[in-house]
Automatic annotation (TrEMBL):
GO BP annotation list: polysaccharide catabolic process
Transmembrane segments: none
Protein name, per record: Glycosyl hydrolase family 13 catalytic domain-containing protein
Coiled coil: none
Stretch forming the signal peptide: 1-28
Domain Glycosyl hydrolase family 13 catalytic: 34-469
Alphabetized UniProt keyword annotations: Signal
SUPFAM superfamilies: (Trans)glycosidases, Type I dockerin domain
Tagged with keyword Signal: yes
Domain of life assignment: Bacteria
Length: 1105
């Protein structure tokens, strides 16, 4: 094997080592924005689950179908709009999910650093019209008139008129019904409150039986006119000093409903979707079917609507792109494209709109046919909007796409789908990859099939190209060779794209110029060359006889019926055999265990099995992070290329090894999510929007690039604090750049890098949940749905238990978890389980919440008062509707059963105080119920029996003073059984509170009532003096142990320390104090005046039967 050393001399600069800088380019350059994934027929839940795959593939945004409620039902794709503000609700989702699910997906895409574009339908509503029986009476479309308002005699308008729509009998692009969908007349001006809030507002659109009904919650769909507006001038409408008020995201119900026309509703919805829901822009449906003035109002509606800013604080403008099936590029560029926002003139409305390039898509389809006879690259190169404006392929206009939900290979005969995507994805500008997840069934006629491998499922052909677009998508477009069957173009100084539209076997050799220095190695990056013996894996830049421009000799691989005729030779990127190393991530959750079928023939279509199951399977491993810190490190390798090289002299493939020192890399940085300050610098280090280092942080612990080391190995490390990160998925990128810096001997070309990525799952805390509500689902109210909410959004499953005892350990509860007690997911963060025969009383619900890591929490919610007639409620423990002896004792389910279970069992009818326990406090709390006149004497007697049994602390059969003495003598016990018996106030400790409770509740005495007459007065002071001077005499006189009545401070000793607490029982204790002074038990207080009266606390003792 020949060894070639092709590195240039290097200047080792101390400054470069001391102060890492983001790589820059020596010249302005065309850029390929990260690809947009058109992600259709997938629920928000599945999209969120696969965001790790979206991240790893290098997509920068996603386009999703219309998100509002559809007219034809919840299986509709969504273009037949019924209600634009109904994005799906708990237990009433759209085809894709709920508003909460969309908001969460939007937030997570932003966390990745991406953008979300929603398909917005401004041209039409659904299929229903005034001829549909009952539709007018129901209210029609929310916010729209089906008939012209007539001033009030008929609330639904004038029959035979068309309200906010064009007539069914009109035609043409602007007034006709596209695919039978009712066409909106944007020129009508019926001004009403179209999303009614206040039922008494006379400006409301007429309410039907189901639509347009006033609801106070509708206030959130309006801006808050009490908040300061922005004021703008719209040069396209000529309107000046336009006040645009913000939506109040802190207090959504502060919105103010105002009258508007149909156009106003459409624009309000567009601004709400951006400012409140958080989307980044729109794909505008059917734009050739509405008047150009609609664009003027749309641009105003979304102008400065986004609250999302760039890391440098600059504004992020809403980006939208239209669908106009037009061949006239002049109309497209003049009407459908507008890019005139001036950040230096924020008071002037501008637009940030582009449009899908149907001309380019059609040219690809016509010229990549299977028979290949008519295929002609020259027709493709001359097509499209990008060339039409300035004659250059520079990404200035148009969104490129190969296929879509409306049209694909099955419709247009495109046979070389991979080749088409390679041509598109390596070009400058914006590009869209279409993925139909087929989550709602294989083989639906609409939307059309897409690239099933767009996220890497079954094949890496597309994801390889989207990654190359990210790593090599910079540099001006250079057309290096163009003929009917072969196209070679360069991204100047970065990559060479070699394409063939021939469908036979073999290759075509061409010699082309490149914007790279002599001796630069180029590596084939798609993997297609590796499988072909006649195709070089390596190219080395040379020239003709050591003079003239740089050149390479390439072979264009023909397709041979396998859709493989594309090669990308690019500058080599830094390499790392070990990849990112994480210190603090102890385990990995592997990909979803769904069988995947390999795409053996390379057409992007797995060969067997359920497309739905494959599309739902997450491929990205999750690295679980449980600690408060995480160590991130990357060690790059010294790069040597080995493989087949095409010798330009012999035209033979030779095996060589090429040392590529520039690929060792001279800079690396890391980014978490869209950009966070994690290295302690006080701010994100690189914040210039659009730069290749945007959102990245310098490595400050170890920063040792390989280019500056003799061994070529680079070392980078950083420890980050994870305590500020939200629970759940996060997205880590370490970007290592190829050396290109002129100051250190580089060629000054555009940035080329390798991204090393990991999907993290932060799991420091147990999942958080809360009981979210309950809803009866039977007429008698006995059967109830309980809802549990995942408050931190991490729940993967939630299990519900009704009325488990509080004494069960978490392990005992977890042992009961199975499918039978699992809740159904009814919203992104909401789970529901129904229970039948729920008893009246204070119920308790236990939620067991799991997240994908297996981490779980057990939370019990008590005191859920339910008065549904299923039993008499508190006290009716056996649930027969009355209070009897059986509720208390001597039955299968009675109060004593639950009391003496020590909270291992639970009854909602026994938990009188609603604290989730059944204990002595509940026994005492139900006393008034059994004292009531309606209760039988037998039931009342049963209560006293139960009370006496509980008060018999010493077990001698009686409840008396000896039990108090027993409590005193054992108050330091460590025996669990005895502790439970004595802990009458169940707080886990034995103290004076338990003693006081025993005295008052079980003995029926009052602390300080020495005479036991139910009143504390001067007689009690005299009796107290007797007790302190001759305790035996006191106890004989009043038949009570002095500890019961006299230990007022409940320290388990009756002594002089109880005098002051006793005197505190009087409103004015002066006379009582004198009794103790006279007896020599207290020292007189100097200057104390004689009391004028005696304040008595009249306390009634509970009389025992």
């Amino acid at each position: 094997m020949a060894i070639l050393s092709l590195s240039r001399s290097r200047c080792l600069l101390a400054a470069a080592l001391a102060a890492p800088l983001a790589p820059g380019s020596a010249f302005a350059q065309d850029v390929s924005a990260p690809a947009i994934l058109q992600w259709f027929d997938s629920t928000y839940e599945n999209q969120e689950n696969r965001l790790g795959d979206f991240f790893l593939a290098g997509y920068g945004g996603t386009w999703v179908p219309p998100v509002g409620r559809a007219d034809s039902g919840n299986q509709s794709v969504g273009y037949d709009v019924y209600d634009r503000f109904d994005l799906g609700r708990a237990n009433a989702p759209t085809l894709y999910g709920t508003e909460t699910g969309l908001r969460t997906l939007t937030d997570r895409i932003h966390r990745v650093g991406g953008s979300i574009y929603v398909d917005q339908v401004l041209n039409h509503n659904g299929f229903s019209d005034a001829s549909r029986p009952g539709f007018i009476a129901g209210g029609g479309y929310p916010g729209f008139f089906l008939q012209d308002p007539d001033g009030g005699s008929d609330p639904f308008g004038v029959p035979g008129t068309d309200g906010d729509f064009h007539s069914a009998f009109e035609g043409g692009d602007l007034r006709g019904r596209l695919a039978g969908l009712i066409d909106i007349n944007h020129a009508t001006n019926f001004r009403f409150i179209r999303t009614p809030v206040n039922a008494n507002d006379p400006r409301n659109i007429p309410a039907g039986t189901s639509a347009n009904r006033p609801d106070p919650a509708n206030a959130r769909f309006y801006a808050d006119r009490d908040l300061d507006p922005i004021r703008v001038f719209n040069p396209y409408t000529g309107e000046q000093d336009i006040a645009i008020h913000p939506f109040n995201t802190s207090d959504p119900l502060a919105g103010d409903a105002v009258p508007e026309n149909a156009m106003g509703l459409l624009m309000r919805n567009s601004r709400w979707m951006v400012a409140d829901v958080g989307v980044d822009g729109f794909r505008l449906d059917a734009t050739k079917h509405f008047e150009p003035f609609v664009f003027d109002y749309f641009d105003q509606a979304v102008y400065r609507a986004s609250t999302r800013t760039n890391l440098d604080g600059s504004r992020r403008d809403v980006f939208s792109f239209g669908e106009a099936f037009l061949t006239d590029t002049g109309t497209l560029l003049g009407v459908h494209v507008r890019k005139d926002i001036d950040p230096n003139d924020p008071g002037r409305v501008g637009g940030n709109r582009d449009t899908l390039d149907f001309n380019y898509q059609a040219a690809l389809a016509r010229n990549l046919q299977g028979n290949a006879i008519g295929n002609d690259w020259r027709a493709v190169q001359a097509s499209g909007m990008d060339v039409a404006d300035d004659g250059l392929i520079n990404g200035s206009n148009g969104l490129l796409f190969v296929q879509s939900h409306d049209d694909g290979p099955a419709q247009n005969g495109l046979a070389m789908n991979n080749v088409a995507h390679a041509h598109m994805l390596m070009r400058p500008g914006n590009a869209v990859v279409y993925h139909n997840a087929e989550e709602h069934g294989d083989g639906r006629d609409f939307p059309k099939d897409g690239r099933r491998d767009a996220l890497g499922t079954g094949s890496d052909r597309i994801t390889t190209l989207t990654k190359l677009r990210e790593t090599h998508g910079r540099g001006d477009y250079r057309e290096r060779f163009l003929e009917k069957e072969t196209l070679v173009y360069e991204r100047a100084g970065s990559a060479l794209v070699v394409l063939s539209n021939r469908n036979d076997a073999g290759f075509d050799t061409r010699r082309v110029e490149v914007d790279l220095p002599f001796g630069t190695p180029l590596v084939e990056l798609t993997g297609n060359a590796a499988a072909e013996a006649d195709i070089a894996e390596l190219l080395v830049v040379d020239n003709d006889f050591f003079a003239g421009p740089s050149k390479v000799t390439v072979r264009a691989l023909r397709n041979d019926g396998q859709d493989k005729g594309y090669l990308v030779y690019g500058l080599a990127k830094p390499e790392s055999s070990a990849g990112i190393q994480l210190a603090g991530s102890t385990r990995t959750i592997g990909p979803d265990a769904v069988p995947l079928t390999v795409d053996t023939d390379g057409d992007g279509v797995p060969d067997a099995g359920s497309n739905r199951d494959r599309s739902r399977a997450r491929l990205a491993p999750l690295r679980v992070v449980t600690g408060d810190t995480l160590g991130i490190s990357l060690e790059t390798d010294a790069v040597t290329h080995t493989g087949g090289w095409l010798n330009p002299l012999t035209q033979q493939i030779e095996q060589i090894a090429v040392r590529d020192r520039d690929a060792d890399g001279d800079f690396a940085a890391f980014r978490l999510d869209g950009g966070l300050d994690l290295n302690g610098s006080g701010a994100v280090d690189f914040t210039t929007p659009g730069s290749t280092a945007y959102g990245f942080e310098n490595f400050t612990d170890v920063n040792d690039p390989g280019f500056f080391n003799a061994d070529g190995r680079g070392r980078f490390a950083q420890t980050i604090d994870t305590t500020g990160l939200a629970e759940g998925e996060h997205y880590l990128t370490v970007r290592a750049f190829r050396h290109r810096d002129v100051a250190t001997g580089g060629d000054g070309g555009p940035a080329v890098f390798e991204d090393f990525k990991e999907v993290l799952y932060v799991d420091r805390l147990a999942p958080e949940s809360a009981l979210a509500g309950l809803t009866p689902f039977s007429a008698d109210g006995h059967d109830i749905d309980f809802d549990g909410r995942s408050t931190d959004g991490t729940a993967d499953a939630m299990h519900f238990f009704l009325n488990l005892g509080s004494g069960l350990t978490d392990a005992e509860v977890l042992a009961q978890v199975d499918g039978g007690n699992a809740g159904n997911r009814i919203d992104r963060d909401l789970f529901r389980r129904g229970f039948t025969g729920v008893a009246a009383g204070n119920n308790a619900v236990t939620l067991v919440t799991f997240e994908v890591t297996g981490n779980r929490s057990v939370r019990r919610y008590s005191g859920i008062g339910i008065d549904n007639g299923n039993g008499a409620g508190i006290g009716d423990v056996d649930g027969d509707g009355s209070l009897t002896r059986a509720d208390l004792t001597a039955s299968a389910t009675n109060f004593e059963t639950f009391l003496y279970s020590r909270n291992r069992l639970f009854s909602p009818a026994a938990d009188a105080n609603g604290d989730g326990n059944v204990d002595t406090l509940d026994l005492l709390a139900i006393r008034p119920l059994f004292d009531a006149a309606a209760v039988t004497a037998d039931a009342a007697a049963a209560y006293d029996e139960v009370l006496d049994r509980r008060g018999n602390l010493n077990g001698n059969g009686d409840t008396d003073s000896f039990d108090l003495l027993f409590l005193r003598d054992n108050r330091f016990t460590t025996d669990a059984d005895l502790l439970w018996t004595l802990d009458l106030n169940p707080d886990g400790t034995l103290d004076g509170v338990d003693a006081e409770l025993f005295v008052t509740a079980f003995l029926g005495e009052i602390s300080g009532d020495f005479t036991r007459d139910g009143v504390i007065d001067l007689d009690d002071a005299d009796a107290a003096v007797l007790a302190l001077t001759d305790v035996d005499a006191y106890q004989r006189a009043f038949s009570i142990d002095a500890l019961v009545t006299g230990d007022v401070n409940r320290d388990f000793v009756f002594d002089r320390g109880d005098i002051d607490p006793f005197l505190d029982l009087f409103a004015d204790g002066a006379l009582a104090r004198q009794r103790f002074v006279d007896a020599g038990l207290l020292v007189p207080e100097p200057g104390t005046a004689a009391a004028l009266g005696v304040g008595l606390s009249l306390l009634t003792r509970r009389r025992r039967r």
